[in-house]
Write a structure and sequence with these properties.
Blueprint (H helix, E strand, L loop, with lengths): L4 E5 L6 H12 L2 E4 L18 H6 L2 E2 L12 H12 L9 E5 L2 H9 L9 H14 L1 H11 L1 H5 L6 H14 L3 H5 L13 E5 L3 H18 L1 H9 L15 H8 L5 H26 L5 E3 L3
Parallel strand pairs: 1-4, 1-5, 2-3, 2-4, 5-6
Helix pairs in contact: 5-8, 6-8, 10-13, 11-12, 12-13
Length: about 290
């Protein structure tokens, strides 16, 4: 029996999870997380992970299984998905991938790019430089060393800037060149149903604001307190989840609750805009476009 595959991509707060639950219920399928923030433990509300009622509808995989102390990569997610797909009990199940991380969908359909091994001393050096100089100065360095990679990255995206510097330092080749050398895809994209949720921007913006208010009432502040108690580096991906910095500033007395909510809502809307642009430019015409789930 051929396994049915469904991919659901879309910006944050667009209703992806609701659609995946409906399809999982109809097909008696399972859901695999395709969102880079929902892999982390502790931040249940702030990353909008499925709740207890959702988990009763269908089995969910790769949600909240990673410590926020870990900088979880696309490669690690790719390996975890491969192990999940190879589970005997899922061999004939409909599998629904749902999330908002474009690189995860790219890896699923096109395989992982070959990447060089990064010696520990090079990795440690650039992370130290990031801590001492900050993302914008490192972006200027990257512009000199690898202008092609620098032009594709935001000057504030420290994680990807450091990664690009590591690669050019270790191999002498641009990370862009390495990324063109793709490997084996995990799934056959031609056999899968592929859906992009592309909602009206005003509707999405209002939904984002409402959802963050619900997160604040539901205990998002307690999640951030728990995260801060771990004493983690501010550069770790989990520490950069939208809402963490804003609520941290509120807890420190530097923002009022209304200001924290407004700033987090603005950041979420900006993130959703970037997601929609990526999906529009990177995913082909073989993807169904839905205005809302």
């Amino acid at each position: 029996m051929t396994r049915q595959l469904i991919l659901i991509a879309g910006p944050t707060a667009s209703g992806k999870s609701a659609l995946s639950l409906r399809l999982a219920e109809e097909t008696r399928g399972v859901i695999i997380n395709t969102d880079s923030m929902q892999v982390y433990d502790v931040l249940n509300l702030l990353t909008a992970r499925p709740g207890p009622d959702d988990l009763k509808v269908a089995p969910h995989y790769l949600y909240g299984h990673v410590s926020p102390a870990i900088a979880y990569s696309t490669g690690q997610w790719f390996c975890d998905v491969e192990k999940t797909l190879n589970r005997l009990e899922l061999s004939e199940k409909t599998v629904i991938f749902v999330g908002g991380t474009g690189l995860y969908f790219r890896a699923l359909l096109g395989g992982l790019s070959a990447m060089p091994e990064i010696p520990a001393d090079i990795r440690a050096y650039w992370r130290q430089q990031d801590a001492e100089q900050g993302a914008e100065k490192l972006h200027a360095i990257l512009t000199r060393k690898d202008p092609l990679a620098a032009s594709s990255l935001r000057p504030t995206d420290s994680q990807r800037i450091v990664r690009a510097l590591e690669v050019i330092n270790a191999s002498g080749r641009s990370i862009i060149e390495w990324q063109k050398e793709t490997g084996r895809p995990l799934i056959n994209g031609e056999a899968a149903r592929k859906i992009i949720i592309a909602p009206d921007r005003q509707w999405l913006g209002e939904r984002i604001a409402t959802r963050f208010e619900m997160m604040m009432r539901g205990g998002a502040t307690d999640e951030v307190k728990a995260l801060l108690s771990l004493g983690l580096s501010a550069e770790l991906p989990a520490m950069r989840a939208i809402g963490v910095r804003e609520i941290s500033e509120m807890l420190a007395g530097r923002l009022r609750i209304e200001e924290a909510a407004e700033l987090a809502t603005i950041a979420t809307r900006q993130y959703a805009k970037r997601q929609m642009t990526w999906f529009r430019n990177q995913l082909g015409e073989d993807w169904e476009r839905l205005p809302c789930p």
